[in-house]
Design a protein that fits this description.
Blueprint: H1 24-34, E1 38-42, E2 48-53, H2 54-66, H3 91-100, E3 105-110, E4 113-119, H4 120-140
Antiparallel strand pairs: 1-2, 3-4
Amino acid sequence: MLKSIKVRDYMTRHLVTFRSDTDLFTAINRLLEHRIAGAPVVDSQGHLIGLLSEGDCLRGILSGAYYEAIGGVVSSYMNTEIETISPETDIIEVSERFLRGRLGRIPVVEGGRLVGQISRSDVLRAVKEFAQHDQGKVRTQ
């Protein structure tokens, strides 16, 4: 049953993260280096305080170019309105949240601390593995 599959089982645990005082161009370089579209921003205790996306970086560069002051720190451009999920949430609920919104990934938070991230592709992998497992049961019966 898909309800028994939890976010914890499929989330990505090792994430690129930033601190609020990370230089914007350092953050851009890390996003490009890791070929990712965004990353969580955490405080010194690992609490999630924001998200920085490629769009946020572009906005920072363009506004800086306009005011002739390109650069700055991540906290000036990160998004602080963050939708999060618990590691105990089931895959069906996550799927429904992805379908309702335009999010491609959701930070996973436990006890206020960032513990991972779940993406649409993680959910697809879970459903695929579940379906293949069930097909194997049907064939052997």
